[in-house]
UniProtKB/TrEMBL annotation:
InterPro entries: AMP-bd_C (IPR025110), AMP-bd_C_sf (IPR045851), AMP-dep_synth/lig_dom (IPR000873), ANL_N_sf (IPR042099), ATP-dep_AMP-bd_enzyme (IPR050237)
Pfam families according to UniProt: AMP-binding (PF00501), AMP-binding_C (PF13193)
SUPFAM superfamilies in alphabetical order: Acetyl-CoA synthetase-like
NCBIfam families, sorted: PRK06187.1
Protein name per UniProt: Fatty acid--CoA ligase
Gene3D superfamilies listed in its UniProt record: 3.30.300.30, N-terminal domain of ligase-like
Domain (AMP-dependent synthetase/ligase): residue spans on this chain: 34-406
Source lineage: Bacteria, Pseudomonadati, Pseudomonadota, Gammaproteobacteria, Pseudomonadales
PANTHER family documented for this protein: LONG-CHAIN-FATTY-ACID--COA LIGASE, MEDIUM-CHAIN-FATTY-ACID--COA LIGASE
Single GO term (MF): ligase activity, forming carbon-sulfur bonds
Keyword terms: Ligase
Top-level taxon in the UniProt lineage: Bacteria
Residue stretches making up the AMP-binding enzyme C-terminal domain: 456-536
Length: 560
């Protein structure tokens, strides 16, 4: 082991732990009169926010929540959720952000698996909660969250209603120091098989992630996204990786924050106008909903900067958003990575190139952010060249990656095989440092001994003017192993069949972007493409649907 020089601290020095409370105290330091807004219902200052966090800490402590207990939240994106993101971990408890879009059976599993002892339930989810309440094994008390005038609900062991309890609580709380490696948050990520898996993050990890995120989003001039004068509105659920961690950064910097509750595209547009929102983040499907909202038709969204993650950002969506005044920037991460890993950066060499080349790099997964190591690994654990051509699994190291899966040591060992976190993504690294995600390992189409990228096909198909949304999957083929199948949603009044799609893709074959076997021989035009609980394309369900359509000989299948 390397022998380093270690100097012990002076006798009276304070060894400051990296705790979330340090982030909370910064926001009011910068902008104590800035507002935190919830829909068109609530607005208050940072000074009030800090008081409310203290009040919530008192409510939870008086209800019996102790350090190490897990406190679950079932709510839409709200000021209450932001308060919970600070108050719960700051008293030493663990915040469990429940994915309310999972099935009742999956929610039950996650709550029992996480040992939830205290649950904050939005009134909209009371029927869902009641359907599983009798099977919960560890929950001791509940607390009601509501926007309604009615301040009670049929919840077992109900402590009371959130606002009434906060109003009666003290606005002061002496948040203690404790070990920065204490777990602060947990949530469950869904895979294609088996039960959801619990990931978890410590105070230290969340603080380091916040500092890196703020430095990247605020300091890289080519993608300057987040500064103290921006107005922030998340369009990524707060139950999903802490809304990508950005509420922590926004609070640390004292930004005006706007929380939209349940996502309604019409309300999102209205809030963008009224509150003068300048920065958001979302998956491509949510952005499509906003662009298609009636309230947004004919509207210039100039000045709105949006990070796209969760799914690949294709050129068609980038250009459609740009035509409406929106600056899109691609970023990459996953539930296990807290989530930020990389963000697009246009360096001096790229700035000197063409606009087309710059777009190519703006829509890639981006360059690893500070403190992140990225590499490409073969199936046998060997690191591969970062030459922009050699493909392998993207593997990662960073201070904020989850150290395993809660109570599943074997799966955690698989996640960290060879000492790197395995993403399950096929990618390349180039000499600019860019990560280019080619596909999920499970979604690569294996045809005739070659690998085809479903993401690349989706990007090329999306450039057809008739196509509003596209998903490509591999389906079994007796001759080639697999063949690509394309699922399309078309713009109103448009028509496209398999032959028309082939004509659209032929130039890309001739230019060498894809080979001729990449052209789907069968497509289906549908009104909606299945999505996961966080808005990603649900390719597992798509494959199942296609198999059923083929077996039934559905009339809407178009074949070359």
């Amino acid at each position: 082991m390397l022998q380093t020089r270690i100097i012990p601290p002076a006798e009276n020095a304070h060894d400051t732990p990296l705790l979330l409370k340090r982030l909370l105290l910064s926001g009011i330091r910068y902008e104590k009169t800035r507002e935190i807004v919830y829909r068109d219902l609530v607005r208050y200052s940072y000074a009030t926010f800090n008081e409310r966090v203290a009040r919530l800490a008192n409510v939870l402590s008086e209800a019996g929540v102790k350090a190490g207990d897990t406190v679950a939240v079932m709510d839409w994106d709200s000021h209450r959720y932001l308060e919970c993101m600070f108050a719960i971990p700051m008293i030493g408890a663990v915040l469990h952000t429940i994915n309310i879009r999972l099935s009742a059976e999956q929610i039950l599993y996650t709550m029992n698996h996480a040992d939830d002892k205290f649950v904050l339930v939005n009134s909209e989810f009371v029927p869902l909660y009641k359907s599983i309440e009798a099977q919960l094994t560890t929950v001791e008390k509940t607390l009601l969250l509501t926007d309604e005038a009615e301040k009670t609900a049929d919840l077992g062991n109900l402590v009371g209603e959130y606002e009434n309890l906060l109003a009666a609580a003290s606005p002061r709380y002496d948040f203690p120091d404790f070990d920065e490696n204490s777990v602060a948050t947990t949530f469950y990520t869904t895979g294609t098989t088996g039960n959801p898996k619990g990931v978890y993050f410590t105070h230290r990890q969340l603080v380091l992630h916040t500092l890196a995120e703020a430095s990247v989003l605020g300091s890289l001039d080519s993608v300057r996204l987040l500064g103290t004068n921006d107005v922030y509105m998340p369009i990524t659920p707060m139950f999903h990786v802490h809304a990508w961690g950005i509420p922590y950064a926004a609070t640390m910097l004292g930004l005006k924050q706007v929380y939209p509750g349940r996502y309604d595209p019409e309300l999102l547009v209205q809030l963008w106008q009224k509150e003068k929102v300048t920065f958001s983040h979302c998956v491509p499907t949510i952005l499509q909903m906003v662009l298609n909202a009636k309230a947004g038709q004919g509207l210039d969204f100039g000045g709105w900067k949006i990070i796209i993650g969760g799914s690949a950002l294709n050129r068609s969506l980038y250009q459609a958003a740009k035509a409406r005044g929106i600056q899109l920037t691609a970023a990459y991460g996953m539930s296990e990575t807290c989530p930020l890993i990389s963000c697009a950066h246009i360096n001096e060499e790229l700035l000197a190139g063409s606009e087309d080349e710059r777009i190519t790099y703006r829509i890639k997964a981006g360059v690893p952010v500070p403190l992140v190591e990225a590499a490409i690994m073969s199936a046998d654990g060997k690191l591969l060249p970062a030459d922009g051509e050699t493909q392998g699994e993207l593997v990662l190291r960073a201070p904020w990656l989850t150290m395993g899966y809660f109570r599943e040591p074997q799966k955690g060992a698989e996640l960290w095989e060879h000492g790197w976190l395995h993403t399950g993504d096929v990618a390349t690294l180039d000499d600019f440092g860019f990560i280019d995600i080619r596909d999920r390992i499970k979604d690569v189409i294996k045809t005739g001994g070659e690998w085809l990228s479903s993401l690349e096909l989706e990007d090329l198909i999306s450039r057809h003017p008739a196509v509003r949304e596209v998903a490509v999957v591999g389906i079994p083929d007796p001759q080639w192993g697999e063949r690509p199948f394309s699922l399309l949603v078309l713009h109103d009044g448009q028509v496209l069949d398999a032959k028309g799609l082939k004509e659209h893709l032929k130039p890309f074959v001739e230019q060498g972007h894809i080979n001729k076997w990449a052209i789907p021989s069968q497509i289906a035009v549908v009104t909606d493409i299945p999505k996961t609980s966080v808005g990603k394309l649900d390719k597992k369900r798509i494959r199942t649907d296609i198999a059923q359509w083929q077996a039934a000989g559905s009339a809407f299948l178009s074949t070359l």
